[in-house]
Amino acid sequence: MVRLRFAPSPTGYLHVGGARTALFNFLYARRMKGKFILRIEDTDIERSEKEFEEGLINALKWLGLEWDEGPDVGGEYGPYRQSERLEIYHKYANRLIEEGKAYEVYAYPEEIEKLREELLAKRKAPHYTREMLEKFTTPERKKEYEEKGLKPAIYFSMPRKEYVLNDIVKGEVTFKEGTVGDFAIIRSNGVPIYNFACVIDDYLMKITHVIRGDDHLSNTVKQIALYEALGWEIPQFGHVSMILGPDAKKLSKRHGATSVEEFRERGYLPQAVVNFLALLGWSHPEGKEIMTMEEMISVFSLDRLGKNPAIFDPKKLKWMNAEHFRNLDEEGILKVSKPYLMKFVSEEEIDKDKKWFVRLLNAIKDRVEELIDIPHLIEFFFIEPEVNISLSEEVKEVYKKLIEEINKIEEWNEQKIYQAFKNAMKGSKVKGKEFYMNLRIALTGREEGPELIDIVYLLGKQKLISRLQKHLR
Ligand code: GLU
Question: Domains in the chain: how many in total?
Fold first, then answer.
């Protein structure tokens, strides 16, 4: 059975890249009827925050990426928060030391930094060797550490050889000998370094596939070396290309909203966001664009993960959101729009007059891209706009007649309203276009908006007459 995981560090919001990684792992786990695991990688104590962890969890849930095992739901291979697994990492670090594959380092950070500068000054890659680092291990230094209550860091002795990775996405990737030097696996404060904790956890949690961004490739070689040193089988790796902005530069804040949280706030539907993310580096076998989660699960495969960088196009996301919004049924549209309607009316009013609100949303739904557009689109129904137009005498005459015709209507429906329009215009020189456009402006203060018939129907007799009368004096 396949087991995949998403392993975020709680040092910020869930951004597009992370969400896409989570989604690909989720889709494959579901497709293969395997397990999807959430692991919180909170070993960067200074930057990790509980609040970010909660934010990540909420954002993932909102997207509909539910996990089978994780810090909140537990599971057979827990704990799922790295800060709660420190003993486990020490156990394996000690094993590596015993086997001569790792060693203690009694150097202060500034000494390591100096070593690095010296290497760079000699135009050498800043790769440390055991020889360089063990020089600091003197009896005096050990005593000093003991007196100060300090612990040595633990470094992994990186074998100097070539590593070849068979990547699901990239194919064969060769890491030449000497790509990396020895590296820390446990800091002197006892906290493991990401590459080490990640390997231990992926192994103990029986992870079969690791799908992640290709910015991790330089970590992967270290991780492969650790797997080998520990005598463990390497999971299947798939490194997906980075997401670029529309200008083909690495996606960043400069490009606008990039966190799931922001999209949620702007009124994107989770199904639209998930659909959009899936197509950043993956494609449907028949090129289908608009898909539900179920559809994506049913056709997802790793061999369709693309090698080329994906371009994040905010316009496409808007389009997808509009499509998913329109595809909802009436109840669905009402439900997701409610928070925006409530800028003007209470929830009770909406529930009481449900039919009218459904009709209202139906009239504007084709114009919605981000749900935060809704208040602007419907504002004039609730707040009478200030309108400055001067109508010709002919048009005024026709509108006076229209009011009479409207007043006669007993059963308020579209057909009757159309008939009233026709009757009002009958025998007049006023052109249809003039009649409709001026009426639209008089009622809404705008030249654009829903169909006029919808506006009139939804405003109702009283509002229609009172708004129109103001321009007839
Ligand atoms: N905590 C790492 C990150 O957020 C996980 C990388 C991985 O998937 O191994 O980048």
Answer: 4
The secondary structure of the chain, three-state, reads CCEEEECCCCCCCCEHHHHHHHHHHHHHHHHCCCEEEECECCCCCCCCCHHHHHHHHHHHHHHCCCCCEECCCECCCCCCEHHHCHHHHHHHHHHHHHCCCEEEECCCHHHHHHHHHHHHHCCCCCCECHHHHHCCCCHHHHHHHHHHCCCCEEEECCCCCCEEEEECCCEEEEECCCCCCEEEEECCCCCECHHHHHHHHHHHCCCCEEEEEHHHHHHHHHHHHHHHHHCCCCCEEEEECCEECCCCCECCHHHCCCEHHHHHHCCCCHHHHHHHHHCCCECCCCCCCCCCHHHHHHHCCHHHECCCCEECCHHHHHHHHHHHHHHCCHHHHHHHHHHHHCCCCCHHHHHHCHHHHHHHHHHHHHHCCCHHHHHHHHHHHHCCCCCCCCCCHHHHHHHHHHHHHHHHCCCCCHHHHHHHHHHHHCCCCCCHHHHHHHHHHHHHCCCCCCCHHHHHHHHHHHHHHHHHHCCCC
33 shares a domain with 11: yes
464 C-alpha to center of ligand 1: Å?
59
Q: Is the pLDDT of residue 252 over 90?
A: no
**What CATH number is associated with residue 207?**
3.40.50.620
Decide: 25 in ligand 1 pocket, CB within 6 A. no
Model confidence pLDDT, tens digit, residues 392-408: 999 999 999 999 999 99
Percent of the chain clearing pLDDT 90 (strictly above):
94
Q: Is 42 a pocket residue for ligand 1 (Cβ < 6 Å)? A: no
Mean pLDDT of the chain: 96
The answer, yes or no, to whether residue 45 has pLDDT greater than 90, is no
Indicate if the pLDDT at residue 254 is higher than 90. Answer: no
